[in-house]
Design a protein that fits this description.
Length: 409
């Protein structure tokens, strides 16, 4: 008996019912694929914002204990010039490292004309900022000029509040050094940039590392940021670099960008919960649609099942026939849903829609990045669940005695 041919004929015979089930499966599959594609784009944007916009890189190297006690005793946990040289040597020798660069945080008061406000910032190597920033669009991330030793970058909202423009030279930064003494230095604003975060866009300053060290009266660095050729190597690189640095006599701890970007993890956990909730609802609808369709089909075809049993088809064959029909319904539905997903994703991406996410300092494009691996996984799961949903009512019908099935009205 040609099962696929018989199953396809049975589906066409109940075309209206089959079409409704296919539409339900297609709509559910498209909804999951599109939402999954949207959150994939959100994750990608948040990762770029953390790694490049927040300048976290892929890995950050601290002296052990810095994250726990560094706020109270920052001077104790700074890397000395000798330790910095060893870190540079060890990390640069590791394959896959694109950049290793020191950082020194600063905070204090920034004055311009008669106005002042608090600031937080960090000292960075100007050339390294350009590499780390990469291809971030527009004014994101900040830039410094190596030819301007007192040139600083300022966040956009802070510049607006203080009425500061690029090229202004009457700006002063006042801080307290690690030994508690007040220090002040003049600066020239060489860049005004967007941090991407509404919480930091009115207080962030970027300065050259040497400027920050003079301001804080130190030659040390608080941490080293490592940029890799591929983000996929982050966890392996952390393990290897921790071991290599320990062998070099450096007691350090290495953190990944995910561990340091709490906003990324919070958003990801939220979207993962939402996706799981939507996924559960949609697949419940798919399973119930298939069960409803196949249950009605089984009732209508009870005498046919009895006839098939009478001519030699075993109970297992009856279950296999209906399972195949359910699988075919799901396959067609998922295929239609896949086409719908691609068309809708193309339309959304071509529409250039923008929106402002929570805690963002600017609007971002609404894009859908369809994930083929995710779509394939959902496809396989949909077919399996549809087959199981179809087998359930078929099993009950197959257990009926042949004479009872033939006499069914």
């Amino acid at each position: 008996m040609n099962m696929p041919k018989l199953a396809s004929r049975n589906l066409v015979r109940n075309l209206r019912r089959s079409a409704v089930t296919v539409i339900a499966i297609a709509a559910g599959y498209a909804a999951i694929s599109l939402f999954g594609g949207y959150i994939a784009n959100v994750y990608s944007g948040l990762k770029d914002q953390a790694v490049r916009g927040e300048r976290l890189g892929h890995l950050t190297i601290y002296k052990r204990g810095m994250l726990n006690e560094g706020r109270l005793k920052p001077l104790k946990y700074l890397f000395s010039p000798e330790e910095s040289a060893r870190i540079n040597e060890v990390v640069k020798a590791y394959p896959g490292v694109r950049l290793v660069t020191p950082r020194l945080p600063i905070a204090g008061m920034l004055s311009h004309d008669s106005s002042s406000t608090i600031f937080i910032g960090e000292g960075v190597v100007p050339e390294d900022v350009t590499v780390l920033r990469g291809d971030l669009p527009g004014d994101y991330g900040g830039k410094l000029d190596a030819d301007h030793p007192v040139g600083i970058g300022m966040s956009a909202e802070m510049a607006r509040l203080l009425n500061i423009k690029r090229g202004d030279i009457d700006t002063t930064l006042v801080t307290s050094t690690f030994t508690g003494e007040a220090n002040a230095m003049g600066a020239e604003v060489v860049d005004i940039f967007n941090t991407g975060n509404a919480g930091t866009n009115d207080k962030t300053v970027l300065v050259p590392l040497a400027y920050a060290q003079h301001l804080m009266d130190t030659e040390g660095a608080e941490r080293f940021v490592v940029l890799l050729d591929s983000a996929d190597k982050t966890d392996v690189a952390r393990t290897d670099l921790t071991r290599r640095l320990k062998d070099a006599g450096l007691d350090v701890e290495v953190k990944t960008w995910r561990e340091l970007s709490s906003f990324y993890m919070q958003v990801r956990n939220l979207f993962d919960m939402i996706f799981t909730f939507i996924f559960s609802i949609v697949f419940t609808v798919i399973v119930m649609s298939v069960i409803n369709t196949m249950s009605m089909t089984v009732v209508e075809r009870t005498r046919e099942i009895g006839t098939l049993r009478a001519i030699g088809l075993r109970r297992r064959g009856v279950v296999s026939l209906f399972t195949l029909e359910g699988s075919m319904l799901a396959t067609v539905g998922v295929a239609v849903g896949g086409i719908i997903s691609m068309l809708v994703a193309w339309a959304v991406n071509a529409a250039h829609i923008t929106y402002t996410p929570p805690n963002s300092s600017s609007s971002v494009p609404l894009l859908v990045d369809l994930d083929p691996s995710q779509m394939a996984t959902v496809f396989a799961l949909a077919v399996i669940l549809a087959a199981v949903a179809a087998a359930y009512p078929a099993y009950g019908a197959a257990r009926r005695e042949i004479h009872a099935a033939l006499g069914h009205v």
